[in-house]
Amino acid sequence: MLNIEEQKNYRISFHHLGFRPFFLFGGLFAMISVIIWFLQYHYKILLPQISNLPVVFWHGHEMVYGYGLAIIAGFLLTAVRNWTNVQTLNGWPLLLLTLLWLLARLVPFSSSSHAMSLMMVFDLSFNILLTLAVLHPIAKARQWNQSGFVLLLLLLSGTNLLFYFGMTGQISRGMELGLYAGLYLVIAIILMMGRRVISFFIEKGVDERIELINRRWLDISASVLLLVFIALQVFTPFHKLAAITAFVLFCLHGLRLLGWHTSGIWRKPLLWILYIAYGSITLGFAFTTLANLNYLNPVLATHAFGFGGVGLMTIGMMARVSLGHTGRNVFDPPRVLPWIFLPIILGLIVRIGLPMILPNSYSLWIGISQLLWILAFGLFCWNYIPMLIKPRIDGRFG
Fold first, then answer.
1. Contact assessment for residue 257 and residue 278, using Cβ atoms and an 8 Å cutoff
2. DSSP state at residue 47
């Protein structure tokens, strides 16, 4: 069994738990990859020498399977240890898993004629090994109620393979299908994680004593319906049926948000960032409904999910998890947090709000939102990388 009270004076802790390497490299990659995307989009400076992969697909793929999955890996390899009381991947195995992820991000920048084949091998190997690393403690503890995460990671491995089959020309529209299916599966994992931890964080984090409203029927119906939505939205031409499904999901998650609301969250940056992120996902379902009925640009719905749901939720989760698992007080967080979170929230408003009001300045809004994203993650890295590298302040393993 795991001894969570183990105390030693560790000099090196970077390889102890998954959140350390994956939050560090994931945060840096979120910043650097969008700098590259900014330069390409506005100045046509194509830094990565990518063959058979249009840069817009590189950007989408790396936001979903690169950045998004890195933060999910860091969270799950840390949280599953607490849930199961079984030690998750650490030491050299954890560093090797991180290296696979890192190599998949770096090889597209090489001049090798086999760069994209190597990217596929490294990336899919990372997907499979991450799935096994999450499965092991769950199976050992026989906590099969956690197996939904394993299923979603396995599905993500399949949709990533679909993307690469499209990249190599083996499946028509494979890149597009793999990209959108991957985004929605990442959203599914975020919603599953959010259901487990956000209401708990709120109940423990606000100043007043409260008990939030959670409904089992809503949990089950929202999870099942989301998988139905993914199948309809990505793999069928039934856009009106997908619109109905998205609207029902909007209503279900809106109801959950209402049950989780209390005025005390707005005094706590680590709470309001997660609440706004969940709200952006909920808005994404509403936008998807309108897009499928041809009332809205579907790109705005995509970025409500990606920029808002994935971006806000992951930076908020990284900020909280990093504090708690390095021995710091999550109830007395750094005062810089609002200045980390506000740029990305403003970026979301600029990215999905202003194009609806002033569509003729679309490129300008994209550029401003990119710069705000870069600023937010730059501030996160500046303030959090030291604590991700250094040992816990209480001397314990982690």
1. yes
2. -
